[in-house]
Sequence to fold (136 residues):
Amino acid sequence: MPGGPSPSLTGFVGHSRPWARRAVRLASLGLPRGEVRDRYRREFVSDLSDLGAHAQVAYCVRVVVGVPALRLAVRNTPSSPLEPIMATTTRPLRCRLTFHRWEAAHTPDGQRFDRCARCHKERGDGRTGFSGLAIG
Ligand SMILES: [Zn+2]
Fold:
């Protein structure tokens, strides 16, 4: 019987799964409608394409779990048409959900460190010995 998901559920990055996109879109319905929801929905979907299939599962779960808290956060933010909501919520949702996007950065004196491209959290804050990327 055809119709089931193909067994190719091993991670290849760069393709968000249709079900995953649907899941985060559904989850985004828990947010206040309008620009905020649209914006987060776009972010969720674009995040998915950065992840492998297994990570997309985890991401969907975290989005679904995180939406109530996010909804509270955006509701408690005074809405002003002049002030984009993302500027007043301190960290991007994906960072609150601990999905940082680590990138290599360098101190002015040339020392390399990992930093989140979104919230600028530095990897290794408070802990050492984590080497995700080996760049000489
Ligand atoms: Zn971050």
Summary: The first strand starts at residue 102 and ends at 106.
